[in-house]
Design a protein that fits this description.
Butyryl-Coa Dehydrogenase, subunit A, domain 1, 3 domains, 3-stranded mixed sheet, binds flavin-adenine dinucleotide, about 375 residues, Butyryl-CoA Dehydrogenase, subunit A, domain 2, 9 strands, alpha+beta, 4-stranded antiparallel sheet
Length: about 375
């Protein structure tokens, strides 16, 4: 089904993204990222140069200024994932959907001036650090503290599972600045790589997204100047997270739909090419019927995701709607990619084939950004009238 969400500006931008991918995403590059466990900085700088990261950075700070038009980010996600570069899509997503928005929407003028121009070029990469070894879903259970000191804060604690954790230069870190676990006991502080006492722990060895780093972080008496308090106001961290989480969840929904679509496209091409019992695999009725289900699921995924993008662009995507999108799309993605692997036979299990990578990458979509159980909790609480 043809999608109606894009206009010619988005399609022109798609050409820019495709051109970038043709130049910078090769099999050799993918293997290099997988071996290193991270995307190289030169590729991120090239993405900055091509104008495909930092999309929402306002023009006055050197960005593309596409503030509330998430369709451009969607084009990037679609094309990068279609190019079989899930890890690169992950690295772009952390920069544009998880780090940049905290500065664009909540940063002080000084913070914007200082960081956004270099985030738009890829010289400065950001990350978001909420999760701790003992607290993931239950964010108010975090133990990382930021105690007031002369001119700033002293931070102690640890974070884990932080995407871009080994490569980022600045980290939006969720910390406790107050007692207890009331929402106003938390703040967001910007920690800079290289600050004394801030250590990047080991890169975690993951099931998927092999070419995108996920790391542990530890903080021992890290002095963070007051000017690095996001928004300049203490006690707002929980609300600030809540403001951006719908975008994070929408971005996962987009990635899920894009991966499902790419998987189906690869599967159609593969089953047209592969022969068994003297005919193409796509000529078996079982394959054709499965593909009919797959393409229909992809159509429905996009119809739903496109609607959510429109709501987001209008400033109307609620936490509950974003939670629905996140759990529903990622579960369909899992089903679609599982069938796609099956239709590839043994080759579907071999990492040279993009479907194998996409299958492994997809699994975490049901876990991060808030688990799908937490998403169902958010949706059903509202219905039950429980806050
Ligand atoms: C590859 C990867 C990248 C990540 N990137 C980041 C990042 O960049 N920044 C960051 O801050 N975090 C990141 N995370 C962390 C991720 O968001 C958490 O892993 C996730 O929120 C779950 O937290 P947890 O692992 O502590 O699981 P837990 O909270 O311990 O959950 C364990 C199980 O219990 C279930 N559960 C928990 N509470 C409830 C409940 N109330 N009702 C029903 N079931 C419940 C969960 O759904 C899950 O099935 C990343 C994780 C991974 C794996």
């Amino acid at each position: 089904m043809e999608r109606a969400i894009y206009d010619e500006d988005h399609e022109a931008f798609r050409d820019v993204v495709k051109e970038f991918l043709k130049r910078y995403v090769t099999n050799e590059k993918r293997e290099q990222w997988d071996a290193a466990g991270e995307v190289d900085r030169d590729t991120m700088l090239a993405a900055g140069e091509a104008g495909i990261i930092g999309l929402t950075v306002p023009e006055e700070f050197g960005g593309a200024g596409m503030l509330q038009d998430y369709r451009f980010r969607t084009v990037v996600n679609e094309e990068v994932i279609r190019a079989g570069a899930g890890s690169l899509a992950g690295a772009f997503g952390i920069q544009d959907d998880l780090a940049v928005p905290y500065l664009v929407h909540m940063g002080t003028d000084a913070q914007k001036q200082k960081w956004l121009p270099r985030m738009a070029t890829g010289e400065v990469l950001g990350a978001l650090a909420m999760t701790e070894p003992g607290a993931g879903s239950d964010l108010r259970g975090i133990k990382t503290t930021a105690k007031k000191a002369d001119g700033g804060y002293v931070v102690n604690g640890a974070k884990t599972f932080i995407s871009s954790g080994a490569t980022a230069d600045i980290f939006v870190v969720f910390v406790k600045t107050g007692e207890g676990n009331r929402p106003d006991a938390f703040s967001l502080l910007l920690l800079e790589s290289g600050m004394a006492g801030f250590d990047h722990g080991k890169k975690l060895h993951k099931m998927g997204f092999h070419g995108h780093d996920t790391a542990e972080l530890s903080f021992t008496d890290v002095f963070v100047p007051e000017e690095n308090l996001i928004g300049g106001e203490e006690g707002k961290g929980f609300i600030q997270l809540m403001m951006n989480l719908p975008l994070e969840r929408l971005s996962i929904g987009v990635a899920a739909a894009a991966a499902a679509q790419a998987g189906v496209e690869w599967t159609i091409a593969y089953t047209k090419d592969r022969e068994a019992f003297g005919q193409r695999v796509i000529d078996f009725q079982n394959t054709r019927f499965a593909i009919a289900d797959l393409v229909t699921t992809v159509d429905v995924l996009w119809a739903y995701v496109d609607r959510a993008i429109t709501l987001y662009n209008e400033g109307q995507l609620s936490a509950e709607e974003a939670a629905k999108v996140k759990f529903w799309t990622t579960e369909r993605e899992g089903e679609v990619l599982d069938t796609c692997v099956q239709l590839h036979g043994g080759y579907g299990y071999i990492m040279e084939y993009p479907i194998a990578r996409a299958f492994l990458d997809a699994r975490v979509h049901r876990i991060y950004g808030g688990t799908n159980e937490i998403m169902r909790d958010i949706v059903s609480r509202q219905i039950a009238g429980k806050r």
